[in-house]
Amino acid sequence: xxxxxxxxxTVLLLGTCLVGGADSGFSWGQETDQPPPVPxxxxxxVTTEAYKKFLADLPQPPATDSSGNQGSYPGWDQVPSQVxxxxxxxxxxxxxxxxxxxxxxxxxxxxxxxxxxxxxxxGYRENAQPHDLDQLISAALTYSPFIQSVQLEPxxxxxxxxxxxxPFDPSAFIDSIFRDTYDPVGNTLTxxxxxxxxxxxxxxxxxxxxxxxxxxxxxxxxxxxxxxNNSDFFLPKQQAITKLRMGYTQPLxxxxxxxxxxxxxxxxQLATDASGQAAIEKIQEHIYKLSxxxxxxxxxxxYYRQNDRSIALLTDLRDxxxxxxxIDSLQSQLWRADSTISKLQAAQAKVVAQIAVAEAQLRAAxxxxxxxxxxxxxxxPVTLPTxxxxxxxxxxxxxxxxxxxxxxxxxxxxxxxxxxxxNVAEQDLRPTLDLVLxxxxxxxxxxxxxxxxxxxxxxxxxxSYSGGLVFQRPIRNTAAxxxxxxxxxxxxxxxxxxxxxxxxxEASVVEAASQIDAAYKELEASxxxxxxxxxxxxxxxxxxxxxFRDETQRSLLLDQLLNAQLQLLQSENSWAxxxxxxxxxxxxxxxxTATLLSTSVQ
Length: 602
Hints:
By secondary structure, this protein is an alpha+beta fold.
């Protein structure tokens, strides 16, 4: 079986494993069939020129094998026939216009064969369910206990805002006190002829009071008292006394102003906003862990397919050796093949364990009822890696950090809250100066005639009133000065924390961007390594088939062939690992720029 040049086309310059899943609102790839353009300043990874040079340098094997069928390596995608034919014909120049779009674009890598088998169940579970990454993220946002718990934190702090409004709510009150007293007297001017003062009465008060946002407190009270005693001078008897009182106290210095009195509300609101930003950061970190588990599952399933294919190829080789045992193959060769197959089968068991672990991590991160049946559901990842270069502009990424990063927004909220506390502390240095106003109306009648007393409040006499100022100032004002110094230090601390957080996040962005570039280069290197090993494997296969006359050479070639098969498997494993690492690096960049849950990909 010979390898035709056309079979390298899709290995060199890639079609893409495009990501689906636009339904849930979260995008992990492009919504079009074309990969994003690459800036001209970036060197292409695998260019059309490199593709043509590779074809020109490729040795030309026979067009057909011994059975008359065109040779091919099982597993690689086939390029369009017109490209394959022209590239395989000696002396025919391959023009860029004749190549399909995914080969013309130098920023796009090829789609390996295991991408096509990603949604095929392995069969180690009773049932299988296909899921794309966006669906799993949406399910996690809906069902994850961790995310639901995190979302409750801002709601808990939001109650603090309502609590801060409490002192400004109107407060109604009712007092009613019954008194029955017996007091000996030593002065006849108190009771007249009686030796003791016997008094019975009821004090009743109803009213409402409220504090406004300027710091003033107003109160309206209606008193209704019933009183009677045995004094000769107590007239009229069985008195009904009413008093309508209105009072107001307004701070003029310390404690005055809307900003001062609303400071507790503003601080509570800022604390709620900061908690909401912290919740967003925790949710994005949780989604990042989910994404890592998803791509680990993708790579583990790729390992399984690669190992399974290698086992099948080696088993076929072993069967060929067994079939020629009576002709030219040796028992040592069979043992060597059996040993290699056994090693791959052992590795396959570990891969199945990796798949189970990745699925368990996904289930734990999502918490969906549909995924809780551990023993019967196999998760089939539908979203596949995007194998094109991710365009990164550091200026844009840093702009996203300033605009969206929840840690920066939370620090800004904390900074504003500290400024509010500082303003309050500065005002608390001022002395207390309050304006006090009071006025009342009274009525009095006997025989407990409360109705007439209440009417007399408005029809007889005139209002009584009073007003004045109350001043107070601590001598040293030690407490207020210490609080002011504390607030200034807190403000400076918050500014330094904001500055350091910006530096740390900028460093994280640079690191994440570098990891994306490194992951993409590693992906390119993995493809080239796979190509080289595949070419070596095909070359050794052809030599082994022609070396039947020399048993020594045949045994040596078999060892080399088995080693090349293992190297090919390792290269394919590295390719799959590099694909997942590339996607994890992209997710990491979106995490540090706080755009992991953004509905658009910049």
